[in-house]
Write a structure and sequence with these properties.
10 strands; binds 3,4-dihydroxyphenylalanine; about 20% strand; eight-stranded mixed sheet; alpha+beta; BirA Bifunctional Protein, domain 2; 2 domains
C-alpha cells in the first residue's frame, strides 16, 4: 500500500518552502506529465475494481489538496513580489520634472499647436482629412476645371492607375479637407485643418512633403471684413507683436473669388529679419471668399451661405518666427538641430500661459 499521507506531507512541505521559480518545478514534479501524482493516477489501471475505487478517491482528494496548496502559494508569492516591486520602484511625485530627459517637440508640431491654440480661442474646431486623395476632392470640387494649368502648377504625385483609369494622388494642399468638411457638416462651419501636403518639388526652398494649415468659415453673413479681422488678429497673436502692418494683395485661386495674398510688414535691416516694422513686405498666406461653385459642389446653397478660406505654409511661419534659416533642416532628423530649435514638451502653448517659451 502506498503511503499517501507521507507523500502529502512531503509535497506540502516542498510547496511551503518553494520560491516563485522553484514552485513551478515542484508543480511539474508532482502534477506534470511525468509527475509523482500523475504516475500514481496511472497505476490505478493495474488495480482491481474495489481497490481502484478506494485508491482513486484518495488520490483525487490528494491531488485537490496539492493543487489548492500550489495555487495559494503562488498567489502569496506573487503578492509578495509585487509588494517588493512597489516598495523598490517608489516614485516621488513631488520631485521637479526633468524635461531635458524626455526629448524635444519639433518646431513643426510646436507651430501647429500654436496655430490651433490661437484659432481655437476664436472658436475654430480642428478638422482632418486623408493624405491620399482623389482628383475630385483635391481639384475638381475646388473648381479647378479639367486640364486647367493650375493643376499642373501643383506638381502632383500620382499613385498607379486603377482599373477604371483614375488615379489616387498625394494631396497637394489641405484645401480638399474644406470639401470633405462641407459635404459632411451643415453650416455654420468654422474649422482649421493642419496637415501634411506633397508636391514633386525639391530645392533650397521646397521639400516634397511640407505642412499647411487651412481655415474655413461658412455662415450666412460672413464677409471679407471678417476674413481680414480674423487674419490680422492671428498674425498679431502668432508673432507676438501689438501692431503689424498687413497688406491684402489681389491674387488668383480657383476655389476663391475674390482671392488675395497676405503680406506682413517687416524689416531686414542689418541682415536681421524683424516682423511688424519696417519698409519690406513678406508674403505669408493665400485666402479669399469661397467660390460659389465650390459651395455648390459641396451641396451648400451659395444664395444662402457664403464664407472665407485661407491656407498657409507651416514651415514658412515657423522659420519666420523662430529664425530657422534653412527649410530642409526640418526633415533631416538631426538631434543637435532638434535640441537647438525644439521645444520643451511640458510647455504646451496657450494664449493665457504663453505660446512659446
Ligand atoms: N491651397 C492653396 C495652396 O496650396 C492655399 C490657399 C489659398 C488656401 C487660398 C485657401 C485659400 O483656402 O483661400 O497654394
Amino acid at each position: 500500500m502506498i503511503d499517501l499521507d507521507r507523500i502529502r506531507s512531503e509535497a506540502l512541505a516542498d510547496i511551503a518552502a518553494a520560491d516563485l521559480e522553484g514552485l513551478e518545478t515542484t508543480r511539474v514534479a508532482l502534477l506534470g506529465k511525468k509527475g509523482a501524482i500523475t504516475a500514481l493516477m496511472r497505476s490505478l489501471g493495474d488495480m482491481g475494481p474495489e481497490e481502484r475505487r478506494n485508491a482513486g478517491l484518495a488520490l483525487n482528494a490528494l491531488k485537490d489538496v496539492i493543487s489548492t496548496a500550489l495555487d495559494q502559494r503562488k498567489a502569496r508569492l506573487d503578492a509578495e513580489r509585487l509588494d517588493q516591486r512597489l516598495a523598490r520602484e517608489r516614485v516621488d511625485v513631488t520631485q521637479p520634472a526633468r524635461p531635458d530627459r524626455v526629448g524635444r517637440i519639433h518646431p513643426i508640431s510646436q507651430t501647429i499647436d500654436e496655430v490651433v491654440a490661437i484659432f481655437g480661442q476664436m472658436g475654430f474646431a480642428v478638422a482632418e482629412g486623408p493624405d491620399i486623395e482623389d482628383d475630385f476632392h483635391n481639384f475638381t470640387a475646388l473648381n479647378f476645371p479639367p486640364g486647367h494649368p493650375a493643376r499642373l502648377m501643383h506638381d502632383t504625385f500620382f499613385l498607379p492607375e486603377k482599373s477604371d483609369g483614375s488615379r489616387f494622388l498625394l494631396r497637394t494642399h489641405t484645401s480638399p479637407v474644406q470639401v470633405r468638411t462641407m459635404r459632411k457638416q451643415a453650416p455654420p462651419i468654422r474649422v482649421i485643418i493642419p496637415g501634411r501636403t506633397y508636391r514633386c518639388d525639391s530645392d533650397m526652398t521646397h521639400t516634397p512633403m511640407f505642412h499647411q494649415v487651412e481655415g474655413l468659415v461658412i455662415d450666412k453673413t460672413t464677409t471679407m471684413g471678417h476674413l481680414k479681422g480674423c487674419l490680422i488678429e492671428f498674425v498679431k497673436t502668432y508673432f507676438e507683436v501689438d501692431e503689424v502692418p498687413v497688406r491684402f494683395r489681389p491674387s488668383f485661386f480657383p476655389f476663391t473669388e475674390p482671392s488675395a495674398e497676405v503680406d506682413i510688414g517687416c524689416s531686414r535691416a542689418g541682415g536681421e529679419l524683424k516682423i511688424g516694422a519696417g519698409a519690406d513686405w513678406l508674403e505669408i498666406l493665400g485666402c479669399g471668399m469661397v467660390h460659389p461653385n465650390v459651395l455648390r459642389n459641396c451641396g451648400i446653397d451659395p444664395d444662402e451661405y457664403q464664407g472665407f478660406a485661407f491656407g498657409m505654409g507651416i514651415e514658412r511661419i515657423a522659420m519666420l518666427k523662430y529664425g530657422i534659416p534653412d527649410l530642409r533642416t526640418f526633415f533631416e532628423s538631426d538631434l543637435r538641430w532638434l535640441h537647438h530649435y525644439g521645444f520643451v514638451p511640458l510647455d504646451v502653448p496657450t494664449l493665457s500661459g504663453g505660446l512659446a517659451r
